[in-house]
Write a structure and sequence with these properties.
By secondary structure, this protein is of the alpha+beta class. It is about 20% helix and about 40% strand. The chain contains six helices and 17 strands. Strands 1, 6, 7, 9, 10, 14 and 17 form a seven-stranded antiparallel sheet that branches. It has a six-stranded antiparallel sheet with strand order 13-12-11-8-15-16, with no helix packed on it. A four-stranded parallel sheet has the order 3-2-4-5, sandwiched between helices. A hairpin with a 2-residue loop joins β9 and β10. The N terminus is likely disordered.
Length: about 290
Amino acid sequence: MPAANAMPNKIDTVGVISKPGSDLAVGVVPEVVAWLEGRGIQVRLDPESAEYAKRPGVPRESVAEGTQLVIVLGGDGTLLSAARAVGGRDIPLFAVNLGNLGFLTAIKVDEIYPQLERVLRGDYQTGRRRMLHSELWRGGQCIGTYEALNDMTLAKSEIARMIDFRVDVDDHQMCVYKADGLVIATPTGSTAYSLSAGGPVVFPTVAALCITPICPHSLTQRPVIVPDEAIIKTSVLGASHTYLTADGQVGQLLEAGDQVICRRSEKTVGLIHQPDQKFFDVLREKLKWGGR
C-alpha cells in the first residue's frame, strides 16, 4: 500500500541517476541540477549524469549516500539499475520517464518540476516494492548473490537449444521443464518479461512470486504463483547453455548441476508516485486496455 512521507522535512542532498546515451537527458539533466542547486540543494551524480552536467560524479552504487531523495532520469531499465544500487535504504526514488514504455517511470518530463515541488513540500506518497534475492550454488558452495526488482531469469545462451531444469518449491518438486527458459518474477516484474512469456499481471502489493516458463515444450506447463515466503530452487540438468540474469542486466553463465535459489529479499524500494495515480490507470495506458 502507499506509504506516507517518511523522509525528513528538509531535503538538502539529492542523488541523480540517468540513462546512458540519451539525447533527451543531455538537456534535462543540467536543467534539473540547476533547478535543485537554485534551491540550495546539493546534488550527487552518477557517471552518466555527471557527463551530461559536465561536472564530477560518483559511482552509481554511491549516489544515494547522504541523500534524502534519488531522481532517476531514464526508462524502466535505468530504474531497475537504480533500485539495485539504492535498494535497502530508506530513500525513495523519483522516477522520470525518458524511455518508451515506462511502467515504473511514470512521471513525465513536463511534470518534473511541479512534482518535485510537491516532494520538497512533503506532499507525496511512496509505494514500497519488495525485491527478489537469489543465490547461485555450484559444487555445494554459494558463488554469487543477486538482487532484482523485477525478476531472475534463466534463459538459453545458444540458438535453438532448449534448457532442461527442475524446479522445487520449499523442497518439494514442482516441475521438470524443457523450455527456452524460466522467469521468477516479483509482483513488480509481473508486467515485464514474465508478462511477455504469458504470465499473469500481479497487483504490486500482493505477497507472491510468479514462476513463468518461457516457451515450454509441454503446453500444459503454465505459470504458477506461490507465496512470497516460498523458497524456489532451480537445478540445471544436463549440458549447460544457460544464463542467469537479474533484471536482464547482470548475471552469469551457468554450468550443469548448478542450482539457483530464489527467495523474497529483505530489501525494498520506495517509488514516489503522483497522488492520483492508480495501478490500473497505468495498465490501461501502457497496455492499451481501453477505457478512460
